Amino acid sequence: MYQTKPGFVHRKIADVDVLISIGGNVADFNGYITLNETCAFLWDLMAEPKCSEQLAQSLCSEYEVSYEEALADVQELLTFLTERALVQEVEA
Amino acid sequence: MSRYPMDGTFELTLRCNLRCKMCMFRREDSQAMEELTAAQWIDLADQVAKAGTMSLLITGGEPLFRKDFTEIYAGIYPKGFLLALYTNATLVTDRVMETLRAMPPHRIGVTLYGTCNEDYKNICGLSDGFDRAMEGIEKLRTLPSALELRFTPTCDTIEKIEELDKRIYDRFGIHPILSARVFKAVRGGCMQPETCRPSPRQTVDITWKQTEARLRNLIPEEFKKYVKLEISDRCEYTEQTQTLLGCGAGMKSFTVTYDGKLLGCQLLDTFQTDALQEGFLPAWERFPETVQLPPHPCGDCEYLQNCTLCPAVAMAETGSFTGVPSYICEITKLTEKRKEEFR
Fold first, then answer.
1. Chain A residues within 8 A of B82 when measuring between CB atoms
2. Considering only CA atoms, which of B269, B332, B320, B273 is closest in space to residue B296?
3. Residue A55 included in any domain
4. How far away is chain A from the Cα of B49, in angstroms, using its nearest Cα?
5. Domains in chain A, number
6. What is the topology classification, in CATH, of domain B7-198+238-292?
7. What is the pLDDT of residues B273-332, one digit of tens each?
8. Is A32 within 8 Å of B54 when comparing Cβ atoms?
9. A18 touching B (Cβ < 8 Å)
10. DSSP secondary-structure letter at B149?
11. Which of residues 45-84 of A touch B (CB under 8 A)?
């Protein structure tokens, strides 16, 4: 299961999704990150722990995409976010 | 270009524990002025966050002078701004540090006024001000926030710039940024900064020297012999930029004053709406209707492209939007002369 790490606030600035670093997180990252639309969608879902299959299923419900393609994209994104310590793996 | 309230300033108070001779804002009646409550600031922060503001500057007066500063700050912080805090660093208590440690701002700006307690006594009316500021900076530098130190010289301290730069760099590893241009008091300010500010010539001399030193400091030692500094004029806009006041004020930036008024810029209150009474977004949307500027007589000036005159400065210096302030004219002409000599 994957969950977003605390220390970011998801904001909408001029129609752009951004994550603003706050709290103790400022020591590691003093700034903000922009998200594309699908990443912002998945980010919000991961406020609660989710597995990659659940995230892929949600993507399929929201966007016209096959489950296989959605799952591959989700896994790629989770690897990217986990490596950068934005998302953490948690127990189910 | 569409308007968008990207950058905000919350002026929590105009009160201050210092009595700086060159302060543009402090008013004689500032102790009695009605300020927004903590709950009102936090509600406004919520409104500006919803309106899409990304960067928020918390300033004053001296924001730490408010007894409820930590309550206001802690209420604003979780809304998720790129937060900056401007302070004189003489009121950094344990309680303030406890709050800032849990919720560090992204940037802290501290203005310095001299190199010793004697300077602070003469300029700011606080006899141990320098020691307190140094102690405050020592605490603030333990935070992960980006720390900027500034120095506003007067004609009494202008000769001490190099001494201050060395002392501060040796102690904190930071070169203070020089804020040499000082304007006359604005918005009913009771001090007379023009009586103690450096002359235009001194201002240009020190600004030039500091800028050149700063640029050279950016060049790694081993490359210095290969680098030649050159000057170019301001970039000309390739497309028409829509403004209200000649800059981003009221277009992408705003100030909410201590009593809840919405201004384009903290220096100018001629044009204002009421963020407290109307709500932030309606006040922001209505703001352009309030701006009525007469044509400025500097339109044909040969120095116009490189001049920093704006309506707020014209009003501060001359009391009129059509006034031509000699202070700015002299600074601009001397700067252009310096550029020619450098070339």
1. 20, 31-32
2. B320
3. yes
4. 8
5. 1
6. TIM Barrel (3.20.20)
7. 999 999 999 999 999 999 999 988 888 899 988 888 999 999 999 999 999 999 999 999
8. yes
9. yes
10. E
11. none
